Amino acid sequence: MADSPTPPRVDAATLKQAQxxxxxxxxxxxxFFEAIDREGYKDKFAVNDAAHHPAGAIAPTSVEEVQAAxxxxxxxxxxxxxxxxxxxxxxxxxxxxxxxxxVMDLSGMKKIEFDxxxxxxxxxxxxxxxxxYDFIQKNNLPYWLSxxxxxxxxxxxxxxxxxxxxxxxxxxxxxxxxxxxxxPTGEVVRxxxxxxxNAPTWQAYPFGFGPGWDQMFVQSNFGVVTKMGMWLMPxxxxxxxxxxxxxxxxxxxxxxxxxxxxxxxxVLQQSPSIGNWLRxxxxxxxxxxxxxxxxxxxxxxxxxxxxKFGLGWWGVSLRLYGREEVNKAAYKILESAIKxxxxxxxKPTSWVKGQPLEYSGWTGTPMTFPMQNVNWYGGRGGHxxxxxxxxxxxxxxxxxxxxxxxxxxxxxxxxxxxxxxxERHLINVNAMIFNKDDPAMMAKxxxxxxxxxxxxxxxxxGEYRTHLDYMDLVAKSYDWNGGALNKLxxxxxxxxxxxxxxxxxxxxxxxxxxxxxxKA
Amino acid sequence: xxxxxxIAFAALAMAGCAAAAQDAKAPAAAPVxxxxxxxxxxxxGPPPMPKxxxxxxxxxxxxxxxxFVEHCAQCHGPNGMGTGLLGRRVQPAMLEQRDNLAAAYVxxxxxxxxxxxPAIPRGEVSDADLKLIADYLAAGPHGVAK
Lengths: 520, 146
Description:
Chain A has 520 residues and is of the alpha+beta class. Helix content of chain A is 31%, strand content 19%. Chain B has 146 residues and is α+β, with helices and mostly antiparallel strands.
């Protein structure tokens, strides 16, 4: 049964009073402090099941209710942990950094305001990718989403956590245009042109006048975002491209050095992701179908997996979006570049408007099946990911891969790695799939993760996003000039949130009130 | 046991969520008329992935079915994670096709989580809405290719 954690310096009686105050402010139907609620808001994929337990949850459904909840939290010094839909499994889901926090579940805020002329949308936190997809289908709107591999979650939550999709609009956080935010002390602000009363251009121009603060509320704990403007990609006339496989681990170098210039030149406008054989195997099969040997998969098993699925050591899908004539011309450039580096297989794909659509991430279709990979080891599965930002350089990528792969073998974990292109960077996502019912395996995950952080740090590589367990560790690795950025974040935090009640510890930002809770 | 899995295309990935594979048995229950104008038959080769089930694909549904589509179909629709993983243990894998789901079991599985399914907390789906979903599934099997 769930324990009943309380926040630091708050006793059970005060927590009970706060619960009653939340009930008065929101109605009892939106306040959840039963054992089943404390269980239900835990981190499903936790490596350490003893950490990050919430005291309960509240579910405001309007800006006024968010303000009312913040007022109660300030009055009783109760830390709140806002989640939009809480489906960023692998990063903590609904669970707070600090045990005893009360989850502010915003999944009931589901308004969508769509401007079909300009392809912009305003979403509330509870709008999931499926909800927005449904809205587009219902209204037959000529726009595509850019969905992540698990599209169960919130459109806003994903962009605010810098999640990515696979279309040219795949860096979702770059397509934010205007936010409405409730500050920790209750004031409501709108950013960009939203600061201008009745501006019809809130979703047209992201910067407004003076400092542009949309990114201030991304991966931060400076406010509760209640509305987010976003640009959507107009449905293209044509989608062309190729799925390509390469035979050897060392082919990674040529792949990166060939694709990266095309990406920088914007011949390729989407964000391709180079990945290894386990991506397909872990989704479609379980490990026991391949081997019963512990430790990292052997080369003979890897060969068997590759043979069954027709894969190389690495694969990548490249896609061109837009006018058919332009795509045809660009395809020739792409084909010639890829053929010059000896791919194992090239499978061309081509679609034009009017033909049956491929329901995949390439067309911004929401999906959940990639999460089947958590069943790879059997048992209650889960995963976390170590994802440093590295240079768009083939030699550096290959070195990073070799170091990391050696660590997977050392720790006896199966390697699922990918190298996802931005315009000037690569995100090297290293997924660690695990089985929570295997204590020996679970004991290795934390030391393994910390080892990868340390290895990357040695080469100047920091993570772009991380699980609750590692927010302090990763924040500490951003250490230039004595950790000046974290100091700035802390000063901003203390100025905006004097009681430190909003998401203490998020991204390693600790308010004064809870500075003693910092780990690392 | 359902092991007949076909790779529709390999690669798609972030954060360990990757690879487009699909359950070769699922498409039979899948096809839904796309909203956009569509011509011609799909090309030969692996069956295409089905279109996601959302309320737009079942116009006019109400009650427990509408709640199921809104809150559950992402994973328990034709190409969802839940359907894929259940298909390794039980048939039919689609919850709407089951004739042996007790309402109390549905409520318990949703609230506590089961296997690889995370718990669905009360702030996301209220007790009243979950009861509608549970009663709908308990009244199954339902036709799903609407």
